[in-house]
């Protein structure tokens, strides 16, 4: 299958590198804002650059992978789901209930699929299973990140810089809190998610502490993420989750 990627940054480059010798997928095209900035990327991986979404979608691609921003999802997804299946990593776009509902309607209308990788966290299968019978009571997410990635202020101790809902979290920190939206979508409830964001001047990893309670019982999970080697602001696990999603699409036995 031919992949068209949106973006040419760290995640897109990671995907291109990982898929170079893949038997099932080939990255052939990329949709970017400024082609001149990404000539080296195109040359290194044999990718055709596009700045127009229509020509991008009319190329030989079979599936689209978004590896850009929330804004790119809002701008391009309505056109994409009319023609292609798509993998979206910038799930913060779905904090907007109206946008989420409109995309659901378009997907049903055109018979396409939207895949949301688990990103920088795990345990989403548990949430989805409990939510299937409305069995979620509360979910708390406490995310701790290096202070320099969250604030320009020089801190000498840990500081809580946000407490609130998943929607509020991604509105204030759109590049940092996609994980809260994945939890909310998996739990089928934006009201059940309590989010705390901590800036830690001594942290070297992003840490996500998740606690879930419901009719199933309770569960706790801690994920400590290493950064992508080529970009310290990007989660290695988030990039891996896209590859994992693509590979699972090819499986005949699905762990569900």
Automatic annotation (TrEMBL):
It comes from the Bacteria. Pfam families: Asp_DH_C, NAD_binding_3. Its EC number is 1.4.1.21. The active site is at residue 208. The keyword NAD applies. It catalyses: L-aspartate + NAD(+) + H2O = oxaloacetate + NH4(+) + NADH + H(+); L-aspartate + NADP(+) + H2O = oxaloacetate + NH4(+) + NADPH + H(+). The iminoaspartate product is unstable in aqueous solution and can decompose to oxaloacetate and ammonia. This is L-aspartate dehydrogenase. The gene is nadX.
């Amino acid at each position: 299958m031919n992949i068209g990627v949106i973006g040419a940054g760290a995640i897109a480059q990671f995907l291109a590198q990982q898929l170079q010798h893949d038997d099932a997928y080939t990255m052939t095209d990329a949709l970017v804002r400024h082609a001149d900035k990404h000539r080296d990327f195109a040359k290194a991986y044999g990718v055709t650059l596009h700045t127009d979404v229509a020509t991008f979608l009319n190329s030989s691609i079979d599936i689209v992978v978004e590896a850009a921003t929330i804004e790119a999802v809002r701008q391009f997804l309505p056109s994409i789901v009319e023609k292609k299946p798509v993998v979206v990593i910038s799930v913060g776009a779905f904090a907007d209930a109206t946008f989420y509902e409109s995309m659901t309607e378009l997907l049903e209308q055109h018979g396409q699929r939207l895949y949301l990788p688990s990103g920088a966290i795990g345990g989403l299968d548990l949430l989805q299973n409990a939510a299937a019978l409305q069995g979620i009571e509360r979910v708390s997410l406490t995310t701790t990140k290096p202070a320099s990635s969250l604030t320009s202020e020089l801190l000498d101790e840990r500081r809580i810089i946000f407490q609130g809902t998943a929607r509020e979290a991604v509105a204030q920190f759109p590049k940092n809190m996609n994980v809260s939206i994945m939890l909310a979508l998996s739990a089928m409830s934006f009201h059940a998610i309590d989010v705390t964001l901590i800036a830690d001047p001594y942290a070297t990893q992003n840490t996500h502490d998740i606690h879930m309670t419901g009719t199933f019982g309770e569960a706790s999970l801690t994920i400590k993420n290493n950064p992508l080697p080529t970009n310290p602001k990007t989660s290695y696990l988030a990039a891996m989750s896209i590859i994992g999603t693509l590979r699972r699409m090819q499986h005949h036995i699905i762990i569900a």
